[in-house]
Amino acid sequence: MPMRIRVAMHGVRNNRIFHLVAINQRARRDGKPTELLGIYDPRMAPGDTEKKVEWSIDRIKYWLSVGAVPSKSAVKLLEMGNIIEPNSKFHPLSHQQKAALAKTPSP
C-alpha cells in the first residue's frame, strides 16, 4: 500500500486549519487518513508572534523511513519545521535540475 504524507484542509473559508496526515496514495482527497501527524494553524491570535504548528516528529520520521512520499506542500512545511533538510531527496526538482541529471552519465 503506497503511503503519502499530505496536507488536509479543514474549516470554513478564511478560517482554515491544515492537518499533516499519512494516507494511502490512492485515497480520495477527503478520505480518512491512516494517521494524523501534525496540525498547522496559519492564523495568529492577537499578541502572538508566530503561527502555531504541532508536530509528531517521531511518527513523521517513521513514515518517511518506511517509504511514505510527502507532497510538495508537505515538504515545504517539513522544511520550515527543520524535520527534513532543504534539497533532500523529498524536495521536488526543477525542470533544469532534471535535465542536468538526465545528461550526466551514470557509472
TrEMBL record:
InterPro entries: Ribosomal_bS16, Ribosomal_bS16_dom_sf. Belongs to the bacterial ribosomal protein bS16 family. Keywords: Ribonucleoprotein, Ribosomal protein. GO terms for biological process: mitochondrial translation. GO terms for cellular component: mitochondrial small ribosomal subunit. It holds the Pfam family Ribosomal_S16. HAMAP family: Ribosomal_bS16. It comes from Pterulicium gracile. GO terms for molecular function: structural constituent of ribosome. This is Ribosomal protein S16. It comes from the Eukaryota.
